[in-house]
Amino acid sequence: MADNTRRITINDDDGQDPKLVSFEAADAIPLVADDLEDERGDRQPIDLDAPADAFAAISAIPAPAAPEETPNAAPAQVSSVPVVVSNAEAEALQAQLKEANDKYLRTLAEFQNYKRRTDDDIRRRIQEGNEKLLQQILPSLDDFDLAIAHAKNTESYEKLIGGVEAMYRKLVDTLARQGVEPIPAVGEKFDAAVHEAVMLDEESDQPDETVTAELRKGYTLNGRVIRPSLVKVAKGG
């Protein structure tokens, strides 16, 4: 490693006292020519008669500057300082908090009242809808009473059958006006969305998965299945 020093001869009371200082310190000493001892050992002549206060000059050398921060350097620790709040500020904050809490409670109460009114309105609408449907079905029930009474008086099977068929058509029309429609079944291809297979017909000559019999009629309400059809489905051996 290179010797980073300059050997300087300084006159003092005891004579010549060689002092060994760094290059930077030697360069800071005014009016003194120094000899340089480098890594090869070469020496240069110096002027020993030049007056200088070497110790004062060395002590006057400024301290090295602090190193610049690097991007990856750890951040300096910052001590936490307690925040001091005056009584007036604390009272103002408490007042704001109380106002915000009051607004929250009022909003919550208004929402609960709105929800209760909405639930009551939904129940009322459902009840009114059921009443309207029943009002349209009740005449069909009256027809059943009349047909049964007439059949008992006449003891006529044909009149009973005719009355029942008329009442059935009337009831179907009433339900259709409310959006209730029967689901097609016999002869249709089995559809799990509207049909429920409860039996397999292995003797049918119909293609597989064809509905060959309807065991219970299914219905839709405004296009939505409210009861699937119970069917018998063809299945080859």
Query: What would CATH call the homologous superfamily of the domain at 182-237?
Result: Head domain of nucleotide exchange factor GrpE
> Which value, in Å, is the CA radius of gyration?
55 Å
Can you name the CATH architecture of the domain at 182-237? Roll
Q: SSE order, as H and E? A: EEHEHHHEEEEEE
What is the end-to-end distance? 101 Å
Low-confidence stretches: 1-24, 30-40, 43-52
**What's the tally of helices?**
4
Strand content: 15-25%
Q: What is the CATH topology of the domain at 182-237? A: Nucleotide Exchange Factor Grpe, Chain A, domain 2
Give the helix level as a range of percent. Answer: 40-55%
Structural class: alpha+beta
Q: If you average the pLDDT, what whole number results?
A: 75
- CATH class of the domain at 182-237, named Mainly Beta
What global shape is seen? elongated
For the largest sheet, list the strands in their spatial order. 2-1-3
Total DSSP E strands: 9
Taking the sheet with the most strands, its summary is: 3 strands, antiparallel
Structure report:
With 237 residues, this protein is α+β, with helices and mostly antiparallel strands. The chain is built from 4 helices and 9 strands. Among the domains are: 5-59, no CATH class; 182-237, Nucleotide Exchange Factor Grpe, Chain A, domain 2 (Roll), CATH 2.30.22.10. Strand 7 and strand 8 (224-227) form a beta hairpin. The longest helix has 68 residues, at 87-154. It is elongated and about 115 Å long. The protein starts with a strand and ends with a strand. The model is unreliable at 1-24, 30-40 and 43-52 (pLDDT under 50).
